[in-house]
Amino acid sequence: MSESPPILYGYWRSSAAYRVRIALNLKQVEVEHRSVHLVRAGGEQHTPEYRRRNPEGLVPLFIDSDGTCLTQSMAIVEYLDETRPGPRLLPPEPAARARSRALAQVIACEVHPLDNLRVLRYLTHELGIDEPDKLRWYRHWVAEGLAALEARVTEWSTPFSLGERPGLVELCLVPQLYNARRFDCPLDDYPALVALDARSRELEAFRRAAPEAQPDAIPA
Question: What domain range includes position 152?
Fold first, then answer.
């Protein structure tokens, strides 16, 4: 009997699920995609069925072929890097690995948590923040994070974080810039990041992971 493929629960516009899709593609891991609509009918992530699988009520959720169940995109990505062959997503040297993690975490730990869907909805629905002030909040935190990343990436002498190929840094950056463009964040001050994003999105692994390429994507 053939082994069943891993399952990824995600949502086409979730930047955290987007990161994992890129990682899966870079590792050439085929998965079964299951959509969890974060907006429809109050959010399918809050249903009892999904909460039984993931009490956090977030995406992504990854279930490996052996039943291993993992949440949190960064943990999933590192698990894939440690359990799957193929191009490594982190460099082999401890110091270089730590530097890659630090850059990725500027987005995953500093920017994204303040700007994700549940935070923005709390600002408007619970605190009564109007749309202009919500956008000002979003753009402020994006600018803080991107400015820090720009200073680091301009120091690179290679096309990608891992020399001639992308890794953990790019799979966090590309989804964040996708979201930044959705909210009309000015990007003129970050030419190195914009160029890195463009180089990454030319690669097949990134094209296949793009939100608009997902089966549950909603047409504009």
Answer: 94-203
